[in-house]
Predict the 3D structure of the following.
Amino acid sequence: MFRAWCVALISLLAGCGGVSGPAAYDTQEIDRIVQAQRAKSDATDAARRGQAVFLEGPCAMCHTIRGTLAMSRVGPDLTHLASRKTIAAGTLPNTRGHLAGWILNPQNVKPGSRMPPTLLASEDLHALVAYLETLR
Ligand code: HEC
């Protein structure tokens, strides 16, 4: 709805831009805003999908994320994961890449870790990490 409205606005403004003079709008700036808005809603979509991956996959059997149905205490509570500087008991900087690597193969990072490897399609993994990054 918002997007449709923006597109309508842009075509309108692009039309105005044709009329030279002080009333010309900066359509590039508007493009940029619309792009940013789109990227934001794509990120939200990924995070939403990532939450489903988490809750429907094995993760929820071992972890708690408060406010969701994940309430297990086998592994650490992930409610504020994204606020942490490191993961896996300080072994790894908390970045996208390290999170993804950890999920795919915790033993590789921390031999003897009790978290099992989880094989995920790359889209699911991407969404899952996007979701974990929202857990502030
Ligand atoms: C069988 C139980 C189990 C499953 C399934 C599991 N984990 Fe874990 N997880 C653990 C344990 C135990 C740890 C602590 C490991 C350690 O530090 O050695 C851990 C650690 C983590 C950490 C690091 C947390 C911190 O505080 O540093 C993250 C992030 C994580 N798990 C995410 C996930 C995700 C995402 C999934 C699903 C793909 C998942 N886990 C599935 C048991 C599990």
About this structure: The chain has a mean pLDDT of 88.
